[in-house]
Amino acid sequence: MKIRTVVTTLVVGGVVAALSVLGAGVAERASAADCVIPSPDISTTLTDTTSGTNASVSANDVFRWDTALSNLDGLPDGCSATASIDPSVFYGLQPITLYLNADGTGSTTAHGDSVAAMAVDPTTGTLTFTLTGYAATHTGVSAHGYVTAFVNESIQRGVTQPIDATVNGVVTPLGTITGAVCTTDCATLPTTAGKWGNENSDGTGRVTIQSPTVPAAGTTVTFADTLTSPGQAIADVDGAMVFDCLDAWGDPGVVQPDGSCQPGWETVPVTSDPGGSYSVVTTKPNQVVQLWLGMAFTGGGPWTDSADVSVDGATWNAQATITAYGAGGGAGGSTPTPTPAPTPTPTQTSPPTPTPSETPIPVATPGQTPPKTPSSAPTAASTSTPGPGPAAHPSAPAAGSASGASTPSAATPDGTNSSLAHTGSDIVPLATVSAIGLAAGLAFIAFALRRRRSESHR
Fold it and tell me: Which fold has domain 34-183+327-334?
């Protein structure tokens, strides 16, 4: 890429100033049609934030997906890039659009310093980055964004598998993940109550309250949920389910006639009780009950609540903290500072210095006192007072000036007019003419004197 600097020159009040205007390839890159951010300038990573390592991954672990864009200087408004992960392995992305701002923040609305917009498509697992006009007019521009996703039960314990991303349509390896091996604390049916929840980035969400394992069929399980922080409300009851076994990753299942555990569950009705509690009745022995509550969230969270689960007179308490959907990012860049170009120094051209002409010494007529030679040459407008002899020739005028008397112009062959004694280059011919005239005058005077003596001797 060529780097170009445009210099604009201003002349104000006779002073010349030069300003340097940013041209670091902006015009060339911004003119590209159907602009796509080059794939080498895009990096993306996936990291298991639940276990802290991609070498021991369990189903439903939370992954953070980071994507960074670099070398964006000069790219135009609308230039874009895409990155995607396999939706058959990762789930839980939310359909959000986040603006990545030059102050390092992300926002759901565009700011004056927004560098790019990051749009999330959960169906295809794709992030689409679209630049604003910021990069075309700033330097050192970069952007980054991240979202969170869950890995599903398709992974297998102890098995290492490659994980890829697709960047601008090209498959890009991201490394591998290995399913965690169950040696201790393997998944078993719970013996106490549990509670968790999620926010969906649009103000909606869900809270799940889980009972301990209930030994007998036909047992009533009562749930009472208390919200312990502002900015949340129970919107509705989404339903309830029961299950009696867990699969390899601890997910709900139903015991089959052959004793195997088939992933899934059985849905059961929920009764809303006075005072805001809810009841569910088990259908088989050794079942676990889960109650789902639809939630409405406002603000940025986090949100907390506490639940009591009662079975046959015994009560267990569970608490949860719900955080906003994990997505964010930011960008960076700076306004270019024009570098002043060196100020040109005006070149002054000195007029040629004329060679002073020799002032002829007047020759006195016999019987008269010769006039004194002036201490300085006469000005262009002055003339010498002639004596009986020939008049002294005036000094030639300075270059570019006009003589005191107007001299008829002589036409040159090209049709332009030129005047005598016009420049200092005419001085030498004039001096020559003056010398010839002086010699002729002296010769004439000598001749007249000899003739006068001759006549006086007659």
Answer: Immunoglobulin-like (2.60.40)
Q: What is the DSSP string of 54-116?
A: TTSB-TT-EEEEEEEE---TTPPTT-EEEEEE-TTTEE-----EEEEETTS-EESS--TTEEE
Residues 6+ apart with CB under 8 A from 100: 106, 114, 115, 116, 117, 118, 143, 144, 145, 329, 330, 331
pLDDT of residue 421: 38
- Give 11's contacts (C-beta < 8 A, 6+ positions apart): 17
CB 59 within 8 Å of CB 159: no
pLDDT tens figures, 137-175: 999 999 999 999 999 999 999 999 999 999 999 999 999
- With beta carbons less than 8 A apart as the criterion, state whether 279 and 222 touch: yes
Domain boundaries, the chain: 34-183+327-334, 202-322
What is the C-alpha separation between 241 and 256, in angstroms, rounded? Answer: 17
**pTM score over 0.70:** no
State the pairing for strand pair 204-210/194-199. Answer: antiparallel
2.40.128.20, 3.30.1300.10, 2.60.40.2430, 3.40.50.2000: which CATH number matches 202-322?
A: 2.60.40.2430
